[in-house]
Amino acid sequence: MVPRRPEDHQWSQEPPQALLAVPILMIVIVTVVDILAPASVHLGPFLVAAPAVTASFAGPRMTAYVGALAVSAQALVAAVRTTLVDLNHSFQLITLILMSAFATSFAARRQRHERELMQLRSVATAAQEVVLKPLPQRVGSLRIASVYLAAESEAQIGGDLYAAARTEHGIRIVIGDVRGKGLEAVGDAALLLGAFRGAAHRQADLPALMSFLEGTVSSDLDDPAALDATAEDRGESFITAAALDIPDDEPVLHLVNCGHPPPLLLRGDQVRTLAVRHPAPPLGLTEFAATELSEETFAFGYGDIVLLYTDGVIEARDGGGTFYPLAERVAGKAAEHGPDALLAHLCKDLMRHVGGHLGDDAAMVAIERLPRPS
């Protein structure tokens, strides 16, 4: 599985021991210059910067230590230049003590918030492992790779989803995108994924499976707990989804598309859009646009790669507002890249296109049918 976040936060990885040299060097420089400066020049107020800087990266204990060092330096300056009871230096010492105490308190609050954030990240990571399980890398004659790119750097899960289930005759894969963001979108994604995993083995064909998923989503939207929402809000709650059946013994795939971006088929240097003739509305909208679900069959031969993706990929814009040209960027990549390398290439190219920040979550799944062993 391709890593979820392509960027690294290098600053947060700097060791505090190395950063501690900065405030200490500030104290030394201010102290020496203040002692050597003319009597009319007072640099003591600049010492408050040392504990303030320390509080931005270190804990309360280290901040208090630097604050005490700054107070000692100010006392040394006062003793050398005049006396400790000099009115000017006395006020500087009192101010420095108060500001050091404030910086120490700030460092304690920041450290507590960072600890809470780490706990939330741990919970989010555990939730992702339960809700959005990684797809198997190899199933029968198929090789699979998947990637989830979160729009927010701190997010672990969102409204994009994918899952796979092994059946008696092959593998079933679903990819979807919940309208909206936040916990509500995560809950809807978890609902659909749970329904898919529970029904993928029992439903005989894709239309029956998608009909079951539609019923699950629609019944959730009609839940009494959601009655406070307006009819307009309920009408705007839906999930685009595409489901594939890939049999083991036939070089084909069966597809049902419910309002989702069509998959791309990579064959050699060619890219084909697998657009169904009779697309269904997104899950949760049958009340407004009833359509019979039907599957369509496409050739999926040995060496082919089918690429599934969410609209966060094709709707990603660069600085000039140009959408990411996915079909153009994957052309000619099937022969030289397997699924993992293909998605790694697309992730780097996509992040380069948007300047390092996505406007929406993006998910991709690449599936390759391997040649028969000779």
Mean pLDDT: 83
Tally of helical segments: 11
Radius of gyration: 30 Å
- Determine the N-to-C terminus distance: 28 Å
Describe this structure in words.
Helices cover 42% and strands 18% of the residues. It has eleven helices and eleven strands. It has a six-stranded antiparallel β-sheet. Strands 3-4-5-6-9 form a five-stranded antiparallel β-sheet, covered by helices on one side. Helix 2 (21-36) packs antiparallel against helix 3 (49-55) and helix 4 (60-81) packs antiparallel against helix 5. It is elongated, with a radius of gyration of 30 Å. The relative contact order is 0.11.
Brief summary:
The chain has helices spanning 16-19, 21-36, 49-55, 60-81, 87-131, 182-199, 206-221, 231-235, 311-314, 326-330, 339-354, and strands at 138-139, 142-149, 160-166, 170-178, 239-247, 252-258, 264-267, 270-273, 296-299, 305-309, 362-369.
Topology:
Blueprint: H1 16-19, H2 21-36, H3 49-55, H4 60-81, H5 87-131, E1 138-139, E2 142-149, E3 160-166, E4 170-178, H6 182-199, H7 206-221, H8 231-235, E5 239-247, E6 252-258, E7 264-267, E8 270-273, E9 296-299, E10 305-309, H9 311-314, H10 326-330, H11 339-354, E11 362-369
Antiparallel strand pairs: 1-2, 2-11, 3-4, 4-5, 5-6, 6-9, 7-8, 7-10, 10-11
Helix pairs in contact: 2-3, 2-4, 3-4, 3-5, 4-5, 6-7
